[in-house]
Amino acid sequence: MTIAMIWAQDANGLLGTGTDMVWNVPDDFQHFKNETMGNPVIMGRGSWEALGCKPLPGRKNIVMTEQLDYVAPGAEVGHSLEEALAIARWSSGKTWIAGGANVYEQAMLIADELVVTDLELEADTQGGPAVYAPKILDKYWRVDESRSDTDWRPKSGDARWRVTTYVRKK
Ligand SMILES: NC(=O)c1ccc[n+]([C@@H]2O[C@H](COP(=O)([O-])OP(=O)(O)OC[C@H]3O[C@@H](n4cnc5c(N)ncnc54)[C@H](OP(=O)(O)O)[C@@H]3O)[C@@H](O)[C@H]2O)c1
Predict the structure, then answer these.
(1) Of residues 136, 143, 129, 130, the one with CA closest to residue 107
(2) I need a labelling partner for 95 at 20 to 30 A (CA). Which of 34, 103, 145, 168 fits?
């Protein structure tokens, strides 16, 4: 099973406020949908709640929480990364880690690939909380040129955007 992570970040690596996303780039959202459709998607409780506790359709949604009594209607619950991955393993193909910051940080140690959207904007959290994408170190990751943009894609909503795919170095 390939474990892939997917996120979108602003020019400073910002992911969101912890409870919300702070931009609207519909074409990137469509890209997220195209990439993940049909596959299991693992997310932290924070991201699940930022999505309004609504499962992403057409995908097995797995929500990570340490709360043993947490109920996520339309999703399955995993109480550790290992448990979430074990639930995902019942499906074939790729398993996607879809955030947020806390879960990406942990899954950086085990992911096989990273599909990262850069947005040409600096989001304004208005002094409020902010969560950031993990650092991608050259030591561990190489860019897969065949699955990466060389230029910006046209502006969609708030920003131009481009996708870079990283694969773990052997
Ligand atoms: N830009 C993007 O592409 C993107 C993608 C996804 C999310 N986001 C943004 O990211 C923010 C949410 O990120 P976040 O870091 O605050 O939260 P998060 O990573 O989504 O969720 C954190 C929660 O997940 C649970 N968790 C984490 N590790 C666990 C483990 N090993 N075992 C069991 N449970 C575990 C814990 O829930 P409990 O506290 O219940 O135990 C923890 O509080 C939102 O603003 C969202 O919009 C952005």
Answers:
(1) 136
(2) 145
